[in-house]
Amino acid sequence: MIYVFLIISSLIILACIYFILSPFFLTKESDEEKGDESNDELTLEAIYRAVNELEMDYLMKKVNEEHYLKLKEEYQLLASKMMKQMGAEKTKRSQSKNTDNLELELLAELHKLRKQEG
């Protein structure tokens, strides 16, 4: 009977140690994955946030006017480039959808013509 209590208590202790130590090992892997994703993709929203922070710094006189105008122009150019890229991707998608629809219509017409002939 004593052995049963020893085994159960040792299992409980091992489970506690596992639950205490496992977050330290798991968070390192997930943080690295999140960091890679966030570094690869700079979003339009992040650029707008940066412009707003820059504007607040300028209004609070933390940044001089020349530096403010230069950085604001850089952020605006970056945002416009991203918007152009997003627009180009959307037009490519819509063009591919249009060509797919046209191909389907052509195939349907060819199928009808073949049925009429044969």
TrEMBL record:
Keywords: Membrane, Transmembrane, Transmembrane helix. It comes from the Bacteria. The chain crosses the membrane at residues 6-26. The keyword Transmembrane helix applies. This is C-type cytochrome biogenesis protein CcmI. It comes from Robertmurraya siralis.
